[in-house]
Amino acid sequence: MKKGRLVDNTDYTFDTIVVGGGQAGLIVGHALREQGVDFTILDASARVGDAWRHRWDSLRLFTQAFMNGLPGMAFPAPPNAFVGKEDVADFLETYAKEMELPVRSGVRVERLTSDGDGFRLDTTGGTFSAHNVIVAMADYQKPYVPDFAAELDPSIVQMHTVDYRNPSQLPDGPALVVGLGNSGADIAVDVAGARDTIVAGHESGAVPFRLESWFGRHLGTRLVRFGMVKVLNTSTPIGRRARPKLMAKGPPLVRVRPKELKRAGVRRVGRIEGVRDGKPVTAEDEVLEVSSIVWCTGYRPGFDWIDLPIFDEHGAPQHTRGVIENVPGLYFVGLFFLHAVWSETITGVQPDVEYTVRHLMEHRSRQPA
């Protein structure tokens, strides 16, 4: 086969294939282009940036615009601005065009296997082969909702974070947000502007200052970024100790802290443990009268399309800083705490991409021409 060319209308081959065209995949693509590697990027979304466009309307980044540029391009906003999801989506789309990155949108990978000399990818856009594959996707793939949700009264409107956009989707009456990570806290405050809101769960900590304060804008966000990228990572003793807890409970609250929940009038309760008479019940045995529930209960890994022996009992890839040691040539970037707490963010993924591409280039000599 000729590299990067269509063969028999279905088969393509490249040195390296990147799966995922979000920020991680685009940064990988830029690095591969700088190294002169023959590659393509496969992305299931219709447009670059769609993963951001499909999130809730009020979403804003925790980091300011000056921290959110990509290699070769600054973010087009005032340096201290906390930009929204549409700004990020448009920036990623512009970046892909300006950097002339070979993104094939609307191509979903349905199966990844080894073909002896490398990898075979069966996709909705044909069959691809490559010596190396970099999976540039977050591990937030399959929305998780507890089984007992099916026992709730049908009159209660239910949706997962992935489907929530704004309070207009919810009926009149009290709303329950289940899960107190950053998504749950943000959505609870968003909903509280329109109706009585309850949030269930316990946070795993919170930053000690408000992002939009003078301290937050001028010093605090820099300290948070430094801690989440340079301190809490797998290269430091404190990072290695913190990783199991953070993997289990998630990162601390950043923008919406307990103080902001209280200020917004959000009522807090413990975990939702089950259902009684069609209504949600808390760990304290309180039955909640609500009209709607937003499940901010996270995701499960969605890598079942990878037909290779690389996963643990929870379906998560087993790796060393994104390198799959028992399958040479396979890499991951963009996972939560892949190396650092913020490995899945725009600002945190960039060191991981540098490490991955450097490792790939150092090991290319073992591959057939």
Give keywords.
single chain; 369 residues; FAD/NAD(P)-binding domain; seven-stranded mixed β-sheet
Q: What is the secondary structure topology, with strand pairs?
A:
Blueprint: E1 11-19, H1 23-34, E2 39-43, H2 50-53, H3 85-98, E3 103-105, E4 109-114, E5 119-123, E6 126-136, E7 142-143, E8 157-160, E9 175-178, H4 182-192, E10 197-200, H5 214-231, H6 237-249, H7 258-263, E11 267-269, E12 272-276, E13 279-282, E14 292-295, E15 299-300, E16 330-333, H8 346-362
Parallel strand pairs: 1-2, 1-6, 2-3, 6-16, 8-14, 9-10, 9-14, 10-11
Antiparallel strand pairs: 4-5, 5-6, 7-15, 12-13
Helix pairs in contact: 1-8
In short:
The chain folds into 2 domains: 11-141 and 301-366, FAD/NAD(P)-binding domain (3-Layer(bba) Sandwich); 143-295, FAD/NAD(P)-binding domain (3-Layer(bba) Sandwich), CATH 3.50.50.60.
| CATH homology superfamily of the largest domain | FAD/NAD(P)-binding domain
Work out the helix count.
8
CATH fold-level assignment of the largest domain: FAD/NAD(P)-binding domain
- Please give the oligomerization state of what you see: single chain
Low-confidence stretches: 5-10
What's the level 1 CATH class of the largest domain?
Answer: Alpha Beta
Tell me the series of helices and strands, N- to C-terminal: EHEHHEEEEEEEHEHHHEEEEEEH
Dominant shape: globular
Radius of gyration: 22 Å
Q: Give the domain tally.
A: 2
Give the helix/strand class: alpha/beta
- The appropriate CATH architecture of the largest domain is 3-Layer(bba) Sandwich
Largest beta-sheet details? 7 strands, mixed
**Average pLDDT reading:** 94
Please give the number of β-strands: 16
> What share of the residues does DSSP label as strand, in percent?
15-25%
